[in-house]
Amino acid sequence: MDPLVVNRVVQALECVYSSDTSAEQRREAEAVCEQLRNDAGASAYGLYLADAANGYPAMVRHFGLQVVEHVIRHRYGTEALDAAGCIGLRDRVYGLIFNPSDNPLYIRAKLAELLVMVIVRAWPSPEWADLSAQLMRLYGGGGQSKAEEEAREMALSVWRTLGEEMFVYERDPVVTIRKSQLTNGVVGALLPKSVVDELYPSGYRTDSVVKKTKKAAVSQIVLESGNEDGWLLRWAQYIHELSAAFQPARDSRLLAVIDTIAVYLDWVPIRALAATQVIPSLASALLVAGSDAVRRRASEALEAITRRYVSTGEDRDTVLFLIAQNLQVMDAISQAYAATTTPDNSWEDSAEALATARTLAVIAANLVNLHWARKKIETSVLEHPEALLALLAAIARDARHTVAAPVLGCWGTSILRHKAIARDPRVAAQFGGLAEHATQALFGVCRAASVLQRGGSVESAGIDEDEAGEFANTGELRGYLTSDVRTRLLGIVRGLCQMDPAGFVTWILPSVEPVLGGQSETAVAEAAFFVIDTVLASLDELEQQALADGDDVMALVAARGPSLALGRLVVQFAASDSLALRQLATLPALAFLLRPAAVGVEGEARNLLLAVLQKCASSLDSTGDLAAVTVARRASAALVRLALAIPDSLMLVYGDLARLVDTRIGDPAVPSSVKAYLREFQLALIGGATVSCTLAQRLELAQPVVQPMVHALSSLVPALESPSAFIEFLGLPQLDHALAKGLPLGDAEARGRRTGLLNTLSTLFICLGRTLGTGDGIVGLTAVWTEYANHLATPLLLLVRCIHALWNPAHWQHLPWQSSQAHNALFGITSREEGGPEEEHNSNHPLKEARDIANAVAVLRGHAYRCLGKLAYLPVLFTLPVMTSNFTGCLFADVATLTPRHWRLLLNEVMRPILKTMSQESGGGSYVSEWLSPLFSFCTERLDAEWQASRDSTVVALRNVEEEIARDAALRDWTRAWSQLLAELLAAVGCVIPGATQIEHDLMSNARVVAITTEPKTGSSGSNPALGAWLLHSPDMLAATLTACLAALQFSDTQAVNRVVGLLAELTPALCLIVLVAMYDPPTPAHASTATAYTTRIDSTLVGKGGSGGGEPSPLFSWLSSDCISALCTVLCDPMLIDVQDHVLTTIADMAYYSAAVAERMPSTAAWSFRNRDISSSSSAVVGDPGTAFRHAILGTLTASSSTLTDKALQNAFVQIVSESESKRRRALLRVAMQPMLAVEKSKMFEKSKPTNAAVKPHPSSGSVVVDASTWSNKRAGQSTSLLDTDDDLFDLSHLMP
């Protein structure tokens, strides 16, 4: 060792740590230190500098340890350091640890880290089999001197650092390499010999595998003589000793041993925890007074143990027994928790007390959730749960919400939903107190949230200050109270109510009565309404479910009597304006008390029903300001919900209700929206009273309700017969004249006409929505509306035609249009300043009137569309002369001037409901075919033009930002509505054609499949099989549908394209199988039956029939192999549709896979020889089975779509795909082959330096989208170039595929 080198390094370190050193000097000094690290004798220099006996300061000793660390990390076990050198280095490091010295904490930590680095490289081994003995000498006998204490803490630090490196961080790569050997050594060192012999009688199973037996290799556990008890037991005993004679000044020793044990708790076998008494020792540390950190660390260690979950085996309940059945441990946990409730007495830091309380609550919750309430809900494994239940009850009553949260959660989920536990009398005895507390706590939470919302302090809200300090602000705290806490409490209320309905009402009644029986805070009264709503709604749901299942409902009937008191409290409460809405919203929950069996006779239930109706009626009279109108609307909504829930009970007083409705409807002071809801209530009541009224009686009662709406709408027909008459009806000429002359508008008559039409249409829409269709809350009155279908359809179609005409300037030519303001206000964007401040306050200002007319037209348009869509649920609609003769003309009149918003509403509200309800029996096929073809043509062409314009930078530059954003949103909404309609058409086809997997199974099983002769049932997705069957047997319509679907793939909207591709991914493989099956000669009668069953579901002109000898591909064959593949390739090249690429690749790969499946199931007796008409004539004819020809056609289409793809790569991929059964694997194989054409780099979307025509994708077909199936051509799109095609550099596959 060169003393000059040592001196130079020491001087360099002084220079580095000096504050007066310049940057240049510091760099030179650091270079000297780095040179020493790389020196051949670095270990000797490092050990010399690190030895405290040499008298160097701490900073030099620490650098010496860093040098040693560098040597161990990079040279230990290599040629640079032989075996003798490794052993010598190990002993020198151990000597530095063992020699007593006044080292600071960071040097002791570095020494432990160095020894652990040597341990993970050399232990256990024959050369080092006495590690435990060495550390035992360091651990010593537990003397009281400072040196002995530091030595023991150093031994603990070594074990703790080793555990962290093995099971937590794994920063050293050697740990991963030697994990099995290290685990073997740790097992032998930490566990008692008796436990090792019991758990590992044959040795420890390693990660390596024996090649001959294919089983994991087993190595014998290394056990050191003198370490039979193991370190775990030694540490547990040490915790007991320190806890029994605790000295606050020396709490670091207790913290060190707890932290050391905690590192191994996630790894130590459960049975070892029982044998080493770890859990009782940690519980004893919970009772240590005078050290917040010790109690918190002990609770965290116990919580880590309770997280251990063993699903099977004899140890699955060990954790539960070790803690919950151990009265000493449970008593320690309970005492520790109780101490946190009064932290001022024994805690130095209240925040530490809060954290410990939360951890103890999680311990209790884990014992229940993970161990006691296991999956088997018929048995309870805990024989003596009293101590655990007492702890759970105590924590549930904690006012600190974050402390009580986990325990309340386990009460509401694990305990109440576990049959065996919930029925245990000892558990059930806790329900009464829990119900009362949950109710009171809910009141307190709502009050606290209200105080915080009003700007009150945390203290005034009753929130623990330490708990509140953990939230960023009071708003976040209030959100936590109103969402998490309140939801959890309501869950407990609901669960307890289901467990014991009658008892629960008795439990909460004393808490609710004072709140609703007198003057209470608004927030508390609102919480009481929440509780009652939750309880009664749960009881009603349980009763209806029990009746439907045929179960006993006597317990629920018994709960109805005590619950009447809750109903009376709700009705009799004198609510203020702020509580009236909540009170009215609670009234429908009283349906449980007002069922026909309860109100059929005079008594409390009947009186309560009358009181409820009287409350609603009095609220309907609340007219005037906006708040009063809102109350009236809520009252009418409550009546509707009651009508849906208890129609037969309300029928007992129908006469009074009818008079009530007629009186309010005739009152001009009642808002029109309230009148509409009242009509809805009346019809819902009539339609739902299926028990108390016959169908004839309900029809008789409904006619007086429906007739006024029908007559009101029919009376408007003269004003809707022409666009000019409708313009006059709206009052537009008078408006234009007033704006041109600057006169006030005094045409109140036109305003009244518009209001009348709006009210009529709104009422009709609400009533149709409640009484026609399917779904929850729909009552059937089809027979009533059928009688008036023609009277409703005529004015609705005329109204739609007139509204569409408003957007056509040709219908405005007869008007002088003296003012451009009127036209802009109706159909454009007018600046606010044009009207001036007078418009804000003057209801007669013409410009305000213009805007009111525009709003009215928008509402009329939406209601007219929706009403037509609802009428589609009437089977007679498709046979009405007005629909068959005028529907297409009215809807497609002035179609060229309609906006995207029109089309979105038309598609969603009219077209889709009609297609969903179409049936062959009602003549829907011929009716739909008249307008579906023009719809395909127009929407595809218009959307294609709109998307082309959106990509044109010169056009976009002319618009302002707001206009462009609005236009893009409208275009995307239209595109998504269009894709939804196309997807539903494909889904309807999918209802008739089974999935490809099912067809393959049928071919493989060789079973006879009977052809479908009756209409299949509607699928779970709500698709229409009748529509699908009609499309499959209408060649032209199916051709138009599939062509429109491919055209929709050209629009760069991910949501729209993903929806269509998703359905194509399900449908195209099945179509491939059916098309190819038809081209084979079935080898057996069973195969013939299967083939016939599937091919007859599609029109024969689409499928074709080959047989042995060959022929020309069928239209569907060509569409699948050419048009469909070509369109899917454009998606793969579009950088805007990257999220859809996986779906597209799956589709193509599945088509190739299933084309081979047919050949395996139905071997062909003769080879086919034909030429695909869409493949170049120079190519040779394909000879082989149809599946091979189909894949050859796909390959031709793919290679023609991109010059970057190679035939060889695709062919190799297809060879592997057809033999691969896993769909994900097939997709991955195709992805690799097609990688050059994938638009995989999202950043390329925003590059404009290189022009590309990837965005411009002409549609495969020119002219009309509707293609005749007999001449169905497979013209491929002009080759679209991928963004990657224009790049000069070749992309490496490793860069493209992460």
Mean pLDDT: 80
Q: State the separation between the terminal residues, measured CA to CA.
A: 51 Å
Counting DSSP H or I runs of 4 or more residues, the number of helices is: 63
- What would you report as the Rg, rounded to the nearest angstrom? 41 Å
Total number of strands = 4
Strand order of the largest sheet: 1-2
**Largest sheet, described in full?**
2 strands, antiparallel
Global structural class: mainly alpha
Low-pLDDT residue intervals, each spanning 5 or more residues: 207-216, 829-841, 1010-1020, 1165-1182, 1241-1298
Tell me the overall shape: globular
Strand content: under 5%
Helix fraction, binned, reads: 55-70%
Outline the structure in words:
The chain is an all-alpha fold and about 1300 residues long. It has a two-stranded antiparallel sheet. Strands 3-4 form a two-stranded antiparallel ribbon. It is built from 63 helices and four strands. Strand 1 (about 205-210) and strand 2 form a beta hairpin. The relative contact order is 0.02. The radius of gyration is 41 Å and the shape is globular.
